[in-house]
Amino acid sequence: MHRYAMLLAILGVAAVAPPAGAETYSLVTPDGFVYFTKARGDHRSYARHVNYAAARYAVPERLIWAVIRAESGFDPRAVSRRGAQGLMQLMPETAAILGVRDVFNPYENIDGGVRHLRALIERFGHDLRLVLAAYNAGEKAVLTYGDVPPYRETQEYVTRVLRFYNDPVKLGELPGGIHQIVERDGTIVYTNIPLAYRPRS
Questions:
Q1: How many CB atoms lie within 10 A of CB 1?
Q2: Separation between Cα atoms, residue 61 and residue 55, nearest integer Å
Q3: How many other CB atoms are there within 10 angstroms of residue 161's CB atom?
Q4: What's the number of CA atoms in the CB half-sphere (13 Å) around residue 168?
Q5: Phi and psi at residue 123, in whole multiples of 5°?
Q6: Is the pTM of this model over 0.90?
Q7: Is 173 annotated as catalytic?
Q8: CB-based contact 88:68 (threshold 8 Å)
Q9: Cα(32)–Cα(13) distance, rounded to whole angstroms?
Q10: How far apart are CA 11 and CA 6, in angstroms?
C-alpha cells in the first residue's frame, strides 16, 4: 500500500550541504522542505508569492509547489519546446487570457498560474487528476475523453505532479534528528520535521 509522509510540526530546517557538482541553490518551502536546484532566482520571494496566491485563491500550497517543480524546476526563465514560459509554464494564449503581462516575472507568473489552477479545480470538481491533466493538455482534451487523455506526456505529468504533491518514496533518519527523503527521480530532501506514516486512500 502506498504511504505518504505527513508533517507533524514545523520546527525549521537544518543547514545541510547541497549536492556536489555544479553550482546549486536551495529553496525552503513554508512546510519545511528543502529543494536543491540549479535555477537561479530569489527563492525566498517565490515562497512569499506562493503563500499569498495560495491564500488568495484557495489552492493548496503543496500543489502549487508540485506544479512549479514539475513545470520549470524552479527556473523563472524556463521556456518549453512548445513555448510555455516561466515558473508555472504558461502558454502565451493562456497568459494573455489571465492578463499576465510579463510571464518571466515570478509574481505575475505564479498569480496567473494559480488562478488558472483555481478555475480548473472548480471546473473539474476538485479531481486533481483531471485538474492537472487539463493544466497540461488543455480543458478540451479532458472534456473530450472524460478522463486523463491517453497522451503519454500528460499521463506521466499527472503521475509526476501527484507524486511530488503526496508521496516521497524513501525516508530515513540521519544523526542529529535530520530526516532524508529520497524521491523516485533521485531528488534528496532534508528536513528536521518529524515524519509519520498513515495509509493513503
A1: 5
A2: 8
A3: 24
A4: 21
A5: -65, -40
A6: no
A7: no
A8: yes
A9: 6
A10: 14
Residue with cell 497568459: 95
- In the chain, which ranges are continuous DSSP H helix? 43-57, 61-72, 92-98, 106-123, 128-137, 139-145, 152-166
CA atoms within 13 A on the CB side of 57: 24
Residues counted in the chain: 201
Give pLDDT tens digits for 37-47: 555 555 666 88
Q: What is the pLDDT of residues 53-66, one digit of tens each?
A: 999 999 999 899 99
Scanning the structure block, which residue is given the C-alpha cell 530526516? Answer: 179
Q: Helix (H) and strand (E) counts for the chain?
A: 7, 7
Give the dihedral of Cα atoms 157, 129, 166, 3; nearest 10 deg. Answer: -110
Residue 52 DSSP label:
H
Residue in 23, 61, 71, 156 annotated catalytic: 71
User: Is the alpha carbon torsion for 188, 46, 161, 71 positive or negative?
Assistant: negative
